[in-house]
Design brief:
Blueprint lengths: L1 H17 L11 H61 L5 H14 L2 H29 L1
Helix pairs in contact: 1-2, 2-3, 2-4, 3-4
Length: 141
């Protein structure tokens, strides 16, 4: 869970940067930034939790494939959770499926995907290492 919190926080900062929420000319309400960060953390936890069993079962060779799949999966979860958070906090339109599909699609068909895909694969390899070390600790007890 700690891995998901940290990776979700880092990925939410990437999303906030791509959404230009940190640009100085634009005044972005703190609550909007908070919804982005909160949604990113929750998406990170859920994505990490969902990837843990397949990474344990299939190991290192499949980590590249799962890393590639984690980008659109995490982006979908982020978009859906962001829609729900911004609807409940800011009163924006509720469209979690639409926003999830939008973010998932943008994560793979835009130029950002070229940079984000290797980062997603790296994050998955790090998660695999964490999952593997937890499994070793359980076997040692």
């Amino acid at each position: 869970m700690a891995f998901g919190l940290v990776s979700g926080l880092i990925w939410s900062l990437v999303a906030a940067t791509l959404m230009e929420l940190f640009d100085t000319p634009r005044e972005t309400p703190t609550v909007e930034i908070a919804t982005v960060i909160g949604s990113g953390v929750m998406a990170g936890v859920l994505t990490s939790f969902g990837m843990r069993v397949p990474l344990r079962k299939y190991g290192k060779p499949a980590a590249v494939m799962f890393g590639a799949l984690s980008l659109p999966l995490g982006a979908f979860l982020f978009g859906a959770l962001l829609s729900i958070a911004q609807w409940s906090v800011l009163g924006r339109a509720l469209a979690p499926i639409e926003r999830g599909l939008l973010f998932a699609g943008l994560s793979v068909i835009t130029i950002f995907g070229v940079a984000l895909l290797p980062l997603a694969i790296l994050t998955t390899f790090l998660l695999r290492r964490v999952v593997g070390s937890g499994q070793q600790r359980q076997g040692a007890v």
